[in-house]
UniProtKB/TrEMBL annotation:
Keywords: Heme, Iron, Metal-binding. This is Cytochrome c domain-containing protein. It comes from Rhodopirellula bahusiensis. Residues 334-517 form the Cytochrome c domain. PROSITE patterns: CYTC (PS51007).
Length: 517
């Protein structure tokens, strides 16, 4: 017991004795004793209360400092992605302004007499680019975005860093910064990104302007960048880049290796805060270093990665700050509530639960033979390739200690479904245009093409049109690549037949519930 407590106890004993000596009436003595106890206890509590107040204040200040630090990390992560070129430049402002002259006749005629601003907007639209929104970060660390006010000057695109010299450099938002039915949304899959067409037309423009070709224009002659708008051959990019590095990321000579080329639909980044692993097969544990592997161009040596770790810690914070947008259309609340019960009975084991408490996410891997979706992605990345990643600096936590890497996964990991209404097309290869078709396996279209930017509120997903086949003689290659043919290699829409356990009314209810996630 401290000296302060001892002093108060001695005073209490003296005052208690004084009360009993001066009063003969027991009732009076007890009354005065009770008052005295209140006084003394209040006195004893005062320094404790003060100490507690100071502790709460200190804790609040620490929380505030941590919150401020996290907000700043999110802001810095956004700045890294949108303002800091981490690769050699892809092309110049002159190239992008002149690229329309490399378009097919009909597309070129539409913009020939347009103002420079309107022409640039058409260029953005053709390739799936969008103006960059403005970031604000809430006190709780959640990122919010809004588009700048309408102005005559077209701002820089979200998907490229544009420096003071007018040099354009691709960033991660090229694939992961798309739109939600026309609204530019960082973290949304860029389901309109036309990387292959953009690269081909940049190549033609550079030839015409007498400018040297870059890595994308040369590399795309060997490695396809994507056969359908909105999908990319991104996994092979990573495998190809790692082929010429040792475990410490030194550039090493190596024999060229054949890879299984296949298109992937980028997952939404607003799932990042929930998922403990990366990629559809969940083989790589989440970490800031793993986010850096797509910068493995020869110009970036081992020192680049050590020097830029803080940048990617901030990118990690930014990704963790993203949350799914909320559906803003009409919802039948009673039907959705019925759908919630059905979902929790039939779907939640793999996809998790949702609600005011945040729900739960099981990170459930489903064996490839059971899920039945296109197996090309699963088979394309070899055990040796995954092991190469596991042995590399990217998976290292500290010297002698590495992350857990699944070198032999069994299949695909069921994703969270937050904002699932906002991220068509569906499945890892982007083969299914609406959630209605996810729930109706036999009705999935064979060849389809997105027809409108707006949402199909009834079926929840793309508005699209059917076709017997892609128009191979269409002179505009961009239009040819807007058709998705599920008969092509790696593009099957088969599998995930679990919805057939539900009847039609139950499927309708589950579809309504999915709008609420």
């Amino acid at each position: 017991m401290n000296s302060f407590s001892n002093t108060f106890l001695r005073q209490f004993e003296l005052m208690l004795g004084f009360c009993f000596l001066r009063e003969d009436c027991l009732v009076t003595k007890l009354r005065r004793l009770s008052v005295l106890c209140v006084i003394v206890c209040a006195g004893l509590a005062s320094p404790q209360k003060a100490a507690a107040t100071e502790l709460a204040k200190s804790s609040s200040e620490q929380t505030s400092e941590a919150s401020t630090e996290n907000v700043r990390a999110v802001e810095k992560g956004w700045e890294v992605l949108t303002r800091k070129p981490l690769l050699p430049s892809d092309f110049s402002q002159k190239v992008i302004e002149d690229i329309w002259r490399s378009w097919p006749d009909e597309a070129r005629a539409e913009v020939e007499n347009a103002s420079p601003e309107d022409r640039l907007r058409s260029i953005y639209h053709r390739y799936g680019l969008s103006e960059r929104p403005e970031l604000t970060v809430r006190d709780d660390g959640i990122a919010m975005f809004q588009m700048p006010k309408e102005q005559d000057v077209v701002g820089p695109p979200m998907q490229y860093v544009v420096d003071e010299d007018g040099d354009w450099t691709m960033n991660c938002l090229s694939c992961h910064g798309g739109s939600v039915y026309g609204v530019p949304t960082p973290g949304a899959p860029n389901n309109r990104y036309a990387l292959q067409t953009l690269t081909e037309e940049v190549r033609g423009t550079k030839f015409r302007l007498g400018k040297p070709l870059g890595r994308m224009e040369l590399g795309s002659l060997v490695i396809p960048l994507g056969t359908t708008n909105g999908t990319t051959n991104a996994v092979v990019f990573g495998m190809g880049l790692m082929q010429y590095r040792d475990s410490h990321l030194n550039v090493v000579p190596n024999t060229p290796q054949a890879f299984v080329h296949h298109d992937m639909d980028a997952p939404p980044w607003w799932h990042f805060h929930k998922r403990p692993y990366l990629y559809i097969d969940g083989f790589a544990q989440k970490g800031h270093r793993g986010l850096m592997q797509f910068t493995l161009v020869p110009e970036n040596g081992p020192d680049f990665y050590r020097d830029h770790e803080d940048d990617f810690r901030n990118v990690f914070a930014f990704l963790s700050s993203l949350r799914a947008p909320k559906y803003d259309g009409p919802i039948d609340e009673d039907l959705a509530d019925t759908g919630r019960h059905l979902f929790e009975q039939t779907c939640s084991r793999c996809h998790g639960t949702y609600g005011g408490d945040g729900g739960s996410y099981p990170n459930e891997m489903v064996a490839i033979d059971e899920i039945g979706t296109d197996p090309v992605r699963f088979k394309a990345l070899s055990r040796e390739g995954r092991q190469k990643y596991a042995d590399s600096w990217f998976a290292e936590l500290e010297p002698g200690k590495s992350q857990e890497t699944l070198v032999s996964p069994e299949g695909y990991v069921a994703p969270p479904l937050d904002g699932v209404w906002a991220s068509p097309p569906y499945f890892h290869n982007g083969s299914v245009p609406t959630l209605w078709h996810v729930l109706h396996p036999e009705e999935r279209p064979t060849v389809w093409r997105r027809s409108e930017e707006a949402i199909d509120h009834d079926r929840v997903g793309f508005q699209f049109e059917l076709a017997e086949k892609a128009p191979v003689f269409q002179p505009d290659v961009l239009i040819r690549r807007s058709y998705f043919d599920t008969r092509r290699f790696g593009k099957s829409a088969a599998g995930h037949d679990y919805p057939n356990e539900l009847n039609e009314a139950e499927k309708r209810a589950v579809l309504e519930y999915l709008k609420t996630l």
